Amino acid sequence: MSLEKLNSGRFEEVIYDKGEPCLVIFSRKSCHVCQGVVPVLEDLQPQFEGKFSFYYVDVEEDKALYQRFSLKGVPQILFFKDGEYQGKLASKVEEEDVKEKITDVLNS
């Protein structure tokens, strides 16, 4: 997986301290839907290099972070900018949906 992994401490630093525009996918290794979504994000990542970052959280390794956002099921893609939650996409997503959401976040 070429997406950078976040744990609780790194999440705080990236999302709230740096406030960079980014998405975080909450996924699980054993989730077949997650395994279909992650490559979509990996394919999009180079198009937004330097403007928008891509991260992931393994919900089995970091349950507290997953529970903090009251998420139900995986995959869940949360979007952030300037330390503010900007919305999410859930379950199986298409590349166009993700690109559209990223554009919305960058232009907000």
From TrEMBL:
Keywords assigned: Redox-active center
Start and end residues of each Thioredoxin domain: 1-107
InterPro entries: Thioredoxin-like_sf, Thioredoxin_domain
PROSITE patterns linked: THIOREDOXIN_2
One GO MF term: protein-disulfide reductase activity
Keyword S-adenosyl-L-methionine carried by entry: no
Presence of the UniProt keyword Endoplasmic reticulum in the record: no
Cellular component GO terms held in the UniProt record: cytoplasm
Family: Belongs to the thioredoxin family.
Name of this chain's protein: Thioredoxin
